[in-house]
Amino acid sequence: MALIRRRTLGVGRRALPLLLLADLLRESHAHWQEQLDPADRARLTALLRLSRGRPANLTARQRAEVVELTRRLDLPGLARRGAWTAAGARLGAGRRR
Structural domain boundaries of the chain? Predict the structure, then answer.
């Protein structure tokens, strides 16, 4: 279910970027939920918090675990989902009937 359809009735042009952002966030969340089970999501979150954005804050084993979990996350698949969502929003934006 996309927030932006080909016909966006009653929505001003200024609201479309916000709707697109909301749609991309929803797709990202759905991808995160589908690709990793709850234990893996919790572990990846814990490792990322522990690192505080710096890989040097993790041991080599923890870094390898982060790499493995992000491979399971399928980031290219997330990019495809986002591209299709954004393309769908753009396809309908300029058409009038």
Answer: 16-90
Q: For residue 13, report the phi and psi dihedrals to the nearest 5 degrees.
A: -60, -30
Cβ burial, residue 27 (10 Å; 0-12/13-18/19+):
middle
pTM for this prediction = 0.62
The string of pLDDT tens digits covering residues 4-59 is 555 555 556 666 778 788 888 888 888 888 888 999 989 999 999 999 989 999 99
d(CA 19, CA 39): 31
In order, the DSSP letters of 4-72 are --S--TT--TTTHHHHHHHHHHHHHHHHHHHHS-HHHHHHHHHHHHHHTT-GGGS-HHHHHHHHHHHHH
